[in-house]
Amino acid sequence: MNPTIWMTLGLLLVLEGLGPMLFPTFWRKVIGSLVNLPDTLLRRFGGGLVVAGSIIYYYTA
């Protein structure tokens, strides 16, 4: 596997961990509010993230 993918995954984990580490109360509120969103909105949000990530990956690879 390409080392760049591992570096990218590592950076993603660092960035994902900053929220709960630095702002646990705010992070908990955000996650709690996501529970109340309808499934269709969550799917659109997730799909948008997948598309954005794929575009970034395509243009940097």
Structure description:
With 61 residues, the chain is mainly α. The protein has one domain. Helices cover 89% and strands 0% of the residues. It has three helices and no strands. The radius of gyration is 15 Å and the shape is flat.
Compact overview of the structure:
With 61 residues, this protein is mainly alpha-helical. The protein has helices spanning 3-22, 24-35, 39-60.
Could you list some keywords that capture this structure?
single chain, 61 residues, 89% helix, mainly alpha
Mean pLDDT: 90
Q: Please give the share of residues in helix.
A: over 70%
Percent of residues in beta strands:
under 5%
| Straight-line distance between termini | 14 Å
Low-confidence stretches: none
Identify the overall geometry.
Answer: flat
Oligomer: single chain
How would you sum up the major sheet? none
Number of domains: 1
How many strand segments? 0
The number of helical runs is 3
Structural class: mainly alpha
Helix/strand layout:
Layout: H1 3-22, H2 24-35, H3 39-60
